[in-house]
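We were asked to recover a plausible sequence for a given structure. The inputs and outputs are reproduced exactly as logged, with field labels preserved.

PROBLEM: sequence recovery
POSITIONS: 390
GIVEN STRUCTURE:
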């Protein structure tokens, strides 16, 4: 029997969905029923096989996002996926860490939704019209399961434009909260929920901060693109003899100072610079023997890749030219479109141009509360290299 309310995919264009990838591109769709943007519809292959349910938006080139691949009611599947996301986090974090990502979009099989936990405050990001419609259901569910003090939405994501959604920020539940102090592996951090980047903190770098603590003993650390100084605090906790934190954002540097202070670190060896990292490195002689480079995504879209690589190469060449012998460089790219192979090529070219001997010691990825869905590689974006410069 024909199912008039279902979306039918073109023959041969259903392979990704059969392989549990979440995105349906408009070119893959053969027939669309009438629907209001954001509606949940059944998805079928050209020969009528039921593939699951997706929410749809005609405005977007990713016209549909699968929210279930089984024949259960889709909201039940979503509920299970939320429960599974919470179970995973529970198994990883103890009382020493109360800030982590609870829901990581497609990485947790819940497209369009990010939820971060900062102690008893949840911060939510919604990136699609379909998720906008599901938001009341999912926020209720999270409130029921976690009893947070408040839930704040911080959906100031450029990707919402493609969905025809305006930017939105505001309180969804509970009492208004501005700043909150959280713990990460026993160290204290102030999060400014309102005036911040992302949802407040770069939770994806947690494992790298732990690594920095173990690498910093006796070193002079440069934390470039420091944001609120999270790497600086871990470096000091690990026994760094000095730390320079550099960021263009005044508010971020202010919080970086506060974060060092509340962890008991103070003194002339802890310096803060509101500055452009490129200028800072050009203008200083660079006596730092552990340099952390964690820039923002230089490539936000595919067409940015060439320019982004030039930026990555410039910054690495500058560092490699100036850094003292026997130094470490911990460098990251969070641009999805610059993959690890390309990132390594860029670093390799910079090393050649600076004529330094450089060895790769370790490779890194995003922390495990940012899981990558094995069927949906787009949730993998962060890569890091630990380099030794002779
Ligand atoms: N390492 C940080 C996150 C860095 S995010 C952490 O773990 O918390 C990138 C930061 O780079 C942002 O704080 C942004 O303000 C800053 N930034 C962007 N361009 C910059 C530039 N050219 N020079 C200095 N800082 C810059």
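RECOVERED SEQUENCE:
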């Amino acid at each position: 029997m024909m199912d008039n309310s279902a979306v039918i995919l073109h023959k041969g264009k259903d392979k990704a969905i059969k392989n549990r990838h979440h995105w349906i591109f408009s070119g893959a769709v053969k027939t669309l029923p009438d629907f209001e943007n954001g509606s949940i519809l059944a998805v079928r292959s050209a020969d009528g096989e039921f593939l699951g349910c997706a929410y749809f938006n005609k405005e977007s080139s990713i016209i549909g996002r699968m929210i279930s691949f089984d024949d259960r009611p889709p909201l039940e599947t979503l509920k299970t996926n939320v429960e599974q996301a919470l179970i995973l986090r529970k198994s990883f974090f103890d009382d020493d860490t109360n800030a982590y990502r609870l829901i990581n979009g497609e990485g947790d099989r819940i497209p369009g939704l990010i939820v971060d936990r900062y102690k008893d405050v949840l911060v939510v990001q919604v990136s699609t019209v379909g998720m906008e419609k599901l938001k009341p259901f999912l926020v209720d569910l999270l409130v029921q399961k976690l009893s947070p003090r408040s839930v704040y939405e911080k959906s100031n994501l450029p990707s919402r434009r493609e969905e025809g959604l305006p930017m939105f920020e505001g309180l969804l539940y509970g009492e208004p909260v501005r700043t909150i102090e959280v713990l990460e592996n026993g160290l204290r951090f102030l999060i400014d929920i309102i005036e911040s980047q992302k949802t407040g903190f770069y939770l994806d770098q947690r494992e790298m901060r732990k690594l920095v603590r173990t690498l910093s003993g006796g070193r002079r650390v440069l934390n470039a693109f420091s944001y609120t100084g999270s790497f600086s605090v871990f470096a000091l906790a690990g026994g760094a003899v000095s730390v320079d934190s550099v960021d263009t954002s005044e508010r971020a540097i202010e919080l970086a100072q506060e974060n060092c202070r509340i962890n008991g670190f103070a003194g002339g060896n802890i310096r803060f610079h509101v500055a452009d990292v490129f200028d800072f490195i050009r203008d200083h002689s660079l006596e730092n023997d552990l340099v952390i480079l964690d820039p923002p995504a230089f490539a936000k879209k595919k067409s940015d890749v060439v320019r982004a690589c030039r930026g990555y190469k410039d910054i690495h060449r500058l560092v490699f030219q100036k850094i003292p012998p026997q130094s470490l460089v911990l460098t990251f790219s969070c641009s999805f479109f610059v993959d690890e192979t390309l990132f390594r090529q860029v670093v390799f070219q910079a090393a050649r141009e600076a004529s330094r001997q450089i060895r790769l010691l370790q490779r890194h990825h995003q922390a495990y509360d940012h899981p990558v869905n094995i069927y949906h590689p787009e949730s993998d974006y962060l890569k890091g290299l630990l380099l030794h410069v002779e």
